[in-house]
Amino acid sequence: MPKLLLAEDDDAVRNMLRTALLRDGFDVVAVASVREALGCIAQEQFDVLLSDLHMPHAGDGFTVISAMRHTHPAAVTLVLSGYPELDEALSAIRLQADEVLVKPMDIASLREIIHKKLANPTRQRPLPTESVASILEHDRDSTIQHWMELVEQDEELTCIALDFRDRTGHLPNLLADLIYRLRLPANSQASISVAAGHHGKLRRQQGYTAAMIVEESRILQVSIFNTLKNNLSRVDFSKVLLDVITIADEVDSQLKQAILTFVKPPEREEMNLKVKGLEIAVKPYVRLPGAVEDTTRNHSLGETKKAQIGVEGADHLYRELRTFGVRSQKT
User: Fold this and answer.
1) For residue range 118-141, what is the model confidence (pLDDT) as tens digits?
2) Does pLDDT of 266 surpass 60?
3) Which CATH topology does 132-262 take?
C-alpha cells in the first residue's frame, strides 16, 4: 500500500482528499501545517507527497517540497495551487516537483496522475546540499542587508540616528559566533558570546532602551530564517530541525548577554554608619553583595575603627542598627 503525505491547510479540502485517497487504497498521513509536514518527513518513509503551495502563506509549500526531495528523493512529489503564477511554477520545477496541479482538481484525474507516476518513476538526480552554517556564512552580507531593511521600517529603532556602520557593526561578529556554534559537535558546551556583551554596552552608550535591543534581536532571527528560506534548494534537511533549535537558542543567549551588559548597576550614595567607636563606610564600588573588605585598623582601645562592606550587606546592617535607634549620616 503506497504511503502518501497530504499537506493542506484548508480543513474541507484536506478531509475530502484524505477520504478519496483512502478509498483508493493509499495509506494517508494528513497534516495542516509546514511544521507538521517536516516532522513527518523526518520520521517516516513516504512514496508520494501531495502538498498545497500556499499553506497558508505564499510559497510555504516550497519548504515541504524541498524537504521531501532531499529526504526521500524517490517519492512522487505533486504540488497543488489555486492559480499558480509563472515564477511559482518555475520554482516548483527547480525544486524537482514532479508536477504542478491547479485547483480545483478532479479526484479521478488526481488518482490517475498519482498511479501513473508511481508506475513510471522518474529517476531524480540527487540535489547538492549545504549545511545551515555554510549557507549563513556565504550569505552573511545579504542577511545583514535584510536586517537593515526591516530595522529602517521600525519607527522606534530609527528614532536614534545611526549610520549603516554603527547600526550593523555588531552583526558580523554575532553571526560568526552563531556559525561557530552550529559547527560544534553534538552535545558540546557553547561558549558565551563576548561580541554580544560588547554590543549591549555600545547600545547603552548610543541611547537605546532594553526593549529596542530585544526588537533588534527578534529581527535578526527573522533575517536568518529568511536567508534559509531563500536557499531551500540547498539546505541539508537531515539536520535542519536541530539547526533551527540551535539558532533560536544562540540568538536568545546573545540577547541575554547584551542585556546583562546593557543594564548598569544603579549608583548608590556613599553612606557612613556611626555607632559609638565604630565607623562603617559603605562604598558603592564594592561588587560582591555582603562581602567585607577588611580594612580595619587596630588602634588603642576607644579609637575609631573603619570597614568597607558591600551595598546589600550595608542595607541589612542599616536596618538592624535602626532597630536600636542608631542614626546614619550620608556623606
Assistant:
1) 888 776 665 677 889 999 999 999
2) no
3) Globin-like (1.10.490)
Residue from 181, 201, 190 nearest 258 by CA: 201
CA distance 146 to 224: 9
What is the gyration radius of the CA atoms in the chain, in angstroms?
31
β-strand partners of 99: 78
Reported pTM: 0.56
Cα dihedral value 128, 132, 133, 139, nearest 10: 80
Let me know: does 271 contact 282? Beta carbons within 8 Å: yes
Give which of 238, 233, 234, 219 is closest to 59, Cα–Cα.
233
Instruction: Let me know if domain 3-119 sits in CATH 3.40.50.2300.
Output: yes
d(C-alpha 84, C-alpha 48), whole Å: 21
Any idea of the CA torsion for 147, 153, 157, 160, to the nearest 10 degrees?
110
- Extents of the domains making up the chain: 3-119, 132-262, 271-330
Whether 88 and 61 have beta carbons less than 8 Å apart is answered as no
Kindly report the three-state secondary structure assignment for every residue of the chain. CCEEEEECCCHHHHHHHHHHHHHCCCEEEEECCHHHHHHHHHHCCCCEEEEECCCCCCCHHHHHHHHHHHHCCCCEEEEEECCCCHHHHHHHHHCCCCEEEECCCCHHHHHHHHHHHHHCCCCCCCCCCECHHHHHHHCHHHHHHHHHHHHCCCCCHHHCCCCHHHHHCCHHHHHHHHHHHHCCCCCCCCCCCHHHHHHHHHHHHHCCCHHHHHHHHHHHHHHHHHHHHCCCCCECCCCHHHHHHHHHHHHHHHHHHHHHHHCCCCCCCCEEEEECCEEEEECCCCCCCCCEECCCCCCCCCCCEEEEECHHHHHHHHHHHHHCCCCEEEC
CA distance 265 to 260: 10
Q: Is the predicted pLDDT of residue 300 greater than 80, yes or no?
A: no
Q: Who has greater pLDDT, 20 or 320? A: 20
Nearest residue to 32 (alpha-carbon basis) of 56, 16, 49: 56
